Task: inverse folding
């Protein structure tokens, strides 16, 4: 399952590289736990809580709400 959209950073990347996002402007929560390449991880690691980012995601594993970020672009929420 893949998805693309805008997400608000709820919790910035932790020491394990995981981050919590909320669908923008809706309120569904998801967790990014994997990255396709170091550039995507670096882009997301640089964002603070409250930042809005457009992501291409694919499900990481079979269960739960864990996702792999395939690409990331910081955006203005306006």
Result:
């Amino acid at each position: 399952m893949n998805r693309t959209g805008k997400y608000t950073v709820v919790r910035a990347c932790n020491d394990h590289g995981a981050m919590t996002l909320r669908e923008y402007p809706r309120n569904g929560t998801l967790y990014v736990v994997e990255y396709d390449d170091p550039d995507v991880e670096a882009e997301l690691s640089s964002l603070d809580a409250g930042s809005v980012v457009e992501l291409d995601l694919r499900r990481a594993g079979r269960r739960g709400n864990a996702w792999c970020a395939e690409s990331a672009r910081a955006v203005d929420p306006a």
